[in-house]
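Quick check before the chapter quiz. The format below is the same one you will see on the exam, so make sure you can read both the input and the output lines.
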Amino acid sequence: MAGTGIEPRIGVIGGSGLQRLLADGAGEEIVVETPFGATSGPITVGDLDGVPVAFLARHGAGHSVAPHEIPAKANVWALAHLGVRAIVSSTAVGGLREELAPGSLVVPDQLIDMTRSRGGDERRDTYFGAGVVEHLTFADPFTPSLVLAARDALAGIGESVESPATTVVIDGPRFSTRAESRWYRSLGGDIVNMTQYPESALAAELGLGYVNLSFVTDTDAGVAAATVDDDAVDASRVFERLAAAQPRIVAAIAAIVAAVPDDLGLSSGIAREHVDAVLALTPRRSA
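Here is the expected output.
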C-alpha cells in the first residue's frame, strides 16, 4: 500500500469503546476517499502481532458518530479498496437471556434485521441498483469458517464464548422498550445491537469475509421479571464496562485476526464483474 509499505490482509472495525487497536508507532493513519462520502474516521494501517491490518473506529473520534448515522457503505468500501479479504468487527451488545450476563463474549452466527434504513444513504444496505440487479446469498450473515475460527481462537486464550447466537439489529440510537426486549427474545434473539447490519451484508456484497466479536455490556431493558434490574442498559454504565474490558477485547480481537485463514473461500452469489465495478467507482472528495 502506497505510503505505508503494508498490504493489510484483515480489516478490523472497532465498535463502542474500541477507539484504537495498535500500539503507539505500530501503524500509520490514512484517509481513504470513497464514492459514498467520508468514512467514520481515518484508517490506521499497521501490524497487529505480525498480521497486517487496517483498523477503523466505527463511531469515529470520541464516539461522535451515532449508530444510525454510521457511513457503513463508505467504511466497508474503503477497507475493500485497501485490499482486505475479511473484516473482524467488535460490537457492544445487550444480553437478551439471563445466562448472557454483562462481561460475556459472544460470536454470533445469525442475525435478525429490525432496521428501517433511517438516516439517509449511509444506512442503505446495498451497493447495487440503478440497473444492476443482484440478489445476495445471505443465509449465513457471518462467514461460517470465520465463526468457527473465532470460537477456537477464543478458547485458545482461555475465553469462554457463547456461539452459536443470534443478534437482533435495531436502528438506535435509543435503547429498547421492555415490550420490544421481550419480543426480540420471543423471536429467538440472544443479543441486541445497532450496527452489525448493514455492515455484514455490505461486506458480503464486496466478497469479504465477516465475523463479529460481541461484548455484553448490559441486559437490555432487563431480562428478569422484576421491573428493576441493576444490569439494565444505561449509556454511562455501558461505556464504563467497555473501558474496563478494553484490554480483554483487544486480546480477543488479536486472537481472531491471527486465526483468519489465508485461503479463505467465499461465495455470495454476486457476479465478480459487479463487485469490481463497485470497487472501481470514482471516490468523492470531501469538501
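If your answer matched, good. The radius of gyration is 18 Å.
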